[in-house]
Amino acid sequence: MFKPLSWGEIEVRAAKFAEEWQMKQKHVEEQDAQTFESDFFHVFGVNQKQVAEFESKVKIEGKKGIGSIDLLWAGKILIEMKSTGKDLNEAFRQAFEYYENLDTDKKTEIILVSDFARFDYYDMTNHGEKTSFSLKDFPKHIRLFESIAGYRKTEHMEESPVNIKAAENMGKLHDALKAAGYTGHQLEVYLVRLLFCLFADDTGIFNDNQFYDYIELRTAEDGHDLGEAVNSVFSVLNKPEEKRMSSMDELLKGFPYINGGLFAEPLETAYFDSRMRDTLLRCAEFDWAEISPEIFGAMFQSVMNQDERHDLGAHYTSRENILKVIEPLFLNSLKQELARICQLKNLRDRKDLLMKFQDKLASLTFFDPACGCGNFLVVTYREIRKLELQTLIELYRDDDQQFLDISHICKVRIDQFYGIEILDFPAQVAHVSLWLTDHLCNKEVGRKFGQVFKRIPLTKFENIHCCNSLTTDWNTVIPADRMCYIISNPPFLGARIMGKEQKQDVESLFTGTKNPGNLDYVCCWYKKAAEMMNIRPEIKTALVSTNSITQGEQVAILWKPLFERNHIHIDFAYRTFRWDNKARAKAKVHCVIIGFSCGEARGTKVICDESGRPEIAQNINPYLVDAPDMFIDSRTKPLCSVPEIGIGNKPIDGGNYLFTAEERAAFLQLEPSAEPFFKPWYGADEFINGHPRYCLWLGDCSPADLRKMPECLKRVQAVREFRLASKSPGTVKLAERPTRFHVENMPSGTYVVIPKVSSERRFYMPVGFLSPQELASDLIFLVPNATLYHFGVLTSIVHMAWMRAVCGRLEMRYRYSKDVVYNNFPWCEPTDEQKEAIEKTAQGILDARAQYPNCSLADLYDETAMPPELRKAHTANDYAVLRAYGLKTDISEKAIVEYLFRKYSELAKRS
Fold first, then answer.
1. pTM to 2 decimals?
2. CATH of span 7-154
3. Which of 63, 324, 462, 768 is 20 to 30 Å from 415 by CA-CA measure?
């Protein structure tokens, strides 16, 4: 790594850089960008050639070809240049698309876009916070680039190599013990105890390196006696000093009495060899004081599972995401309350309220009913202890602290924290993580007050229960009348991938609910939490969940009974955001956070978007929209008088009737007479990307003609055999007519088509027309008898806003549906003139597309590449449709959705 320049030198270089590049008024990206970027790096004493790559290639999901990043320093900075005067917002959109498609380990801290005269700086470690400045003012902003200059470590605590390396070494020890025959519960308890000892060795519970020294000095290099020595340590940690034998080894006698039940269970002796002893010593050599209990616990769990070891920590909840849950739920209000108290000028009033506030902190209880290794509880405990420490500092600021015994004035304890975890090992880790976190918090208090503070021996702590959260009465873990907050990140399992036991859990909890089989597993925690809140309405809950529970058909199934029977309301929400835990490999999940309660609705309701930007809301409905509470049920017929929508064709043919262009050509070489029976075949991908496959449609072929085509007969026979081999009785029955499809939908006229799944990166979901000679697959919805008017409304901002609000999602991609999206869409009631205007603007969209015959819909609707003519045509169409609804043309999408929900409610009452 290069040696950083002084800030004084960097400032001089920055001023010179700005002066030289201001001399020329106009700069062209293609000619000047690389020189500009090299000079930019020189300001910070960095040789661009050694660290960053010009024109770095990146594959963009859902697009043909490869993107080219102007400059990429992996993990540090992504730069996108534009010619002088060009739109920097457009440059950022392009840069952000590149950023989103980078591999995890290449995602950068900074996105910088520039037109040589202006800079927009985006801090990607802080929700993309933007700072704008001119080239002239660049020297004033050089400290934004401290990581480029070499002044700041760029590692996040969560992905610290120390955490990862320590976890990997523990994994090696686990593997060696398991291979030697030490397995199951015994192994798990053994490793948890070792974890405690390793932390204790470096955090002041033991004397410095006491555990390491005992192993090093009292065991043989071949490891034959190490198991007995470790058992001796475990035994002495469970025995009070006064009950230990006087003849005990002095090194062993020096270990403190730990208690707490951690070392109470008898374990069989583990037998070590020299290699295993070396591994344990390597583990003990780490400075465990640097390791974060909330992060390491989840990594440790991953290490125990060989299948998860390649993505250490991918499934833990990061501190950042935990704060999204606990800050709006309780932490922000507690901080504000403490700040108000500290501002009081009357000393007696201030001290009285500070003591009451500390008592309040000590009275709060927190319950995680899917706690895993306890990181929700650990992070929350640390935050509450921080508040208590601030309270104590304020409370005793003017007192003579030398007479204080801080062990008596700290009131917040881990026994205010409760959890349920179905697996034994993570439950044990959660126990230990809370103990260790308590110790670290005590050390911090001790440092502030100049005292040593240890809570040793430990008191017995049995608040983490190992059981099935969904079949356990939560009242037996913590009675509802003592419960304050439920916080959790329950398992992410969709309705279609649950196991038998999990499906039984859902069915049991949602007895009497219509279509419970369509609910995700996480819905069970919402139901159980609502039941607890009905017992004690003061309880408040916030859960991290998959975004699917706020979309599509799940909304009515889950939320309708929760609102109507359990009387809950949503207090705050984070709309869909991508899971990001800063680990080397990330769980690719899109989440929402929902805070809810059933007591009296008080306080400001807030909805945060993907970037974390908050918006005040009058009400938050289950779609996480500021609109009245409503539940859009599946509907088999359209709400309004419009053509019905259906799915495309579904052959169930084992692929025997479908051909690429090359396969079709090869087939026709063998069977030229089959040409009239081939039809272009469009699924969502083929329709959007403009490369149809071909379907051999023999449903209308006479037996006489079919017998003249032996290659076609082979295909028919293959389809028949495929269907006969099915386990589905309906498919077997279909084998009786092998030339026909399971679903046939072939309109006689031109028809509108809508892809079932399309990218969320497009503002307009591609909608279009197909002719009767073209077949749509079941991955496309089709609307026979639809007119230009219907096309115009369906491709408008109004329908897009509705679709984005209520459709299901596949990851983040739009998943259009017949029964929820189309059939519930509240159509406008236009005058003849308004309808004619929409037909005209709809034709304008088709005409604009026709100007680019060699471009696919994917090309045309790419937000960066969209032709001006097409964008203009869509804008005109949007305005025409908005006027037909009686809406202003400058209305926001948020306001459109709120209007549509109200209109839907009115229409639904009439239907």
1. 0.73
2. 3.90.1570
3. 324
